[in-house]
Amino acid sequence: xxxxxxxxxxxxxxxxxxxxxxxxxxxxxxxxxxxxxxxxxxxxxxxxxxxxxxxxxxxxxxxxxxxxxxxxxxxxxxxxxxxxxxxxxxxxxxxxxxxxxxxxxxxxxxxxxxxxxxxxxxxxxxxxxxxxxxxxxxxxxxxxxxxxxxxxxxxxxxxxxxxxxxxxxxxxxxxxxxxxxxxxxxxxxxxxxxxxxxxxxxxxxxxxxxxxxx
Length: 214
Fold this sequence. Notes:
- By secondary structure, this protein is mostly helical.
- The protein is built from eight helices and no strands.
- It has helices at residues 3-19, 25-46, 57-83, 88-93, 95-113, 121-150, 154-179, 184-207.
């Protein structure tokens, strides 16, 4: 039942490591995985994930946005950027494998630990896809921000930040809608569109020489 959720992100991470000519990406992936284990362990020891979902779309959306996406991404990448002495471009291009490895551990933990009943189709199939797609978008917008910063293009920088926030907000909104059983068919339709466009973005990055992939 959990196979798809457990395998999806590691499979994409394995592909990224395999295609990269710089094998130091493996150490970055290990850093992300260890970080995922550490954060999951701390969460298990010091917090309680069996929350009773609010009967509020906004309340659940903000919970998922900040707890599962915004705070982990910002903190992990900030610490990684401060601790490592690599060039800025390297840090930007290793954002994707770092986050893939982190969420390969952290996302299944949160899904399993926060569930007190039967697992839903959304939590074990749709959510892993949404997380993967979100990381593709974030990697792309992080790369756009970096390039815009080099060119001193403030408009592109602002646009990249706003789009990155939207890319994190959409999965949170969809899960918030699903949690209160609001327009569930729409949740699946939007999820499909969100995933479909991310595949297009990823395939373009694979073909381009200068992309967010190392």
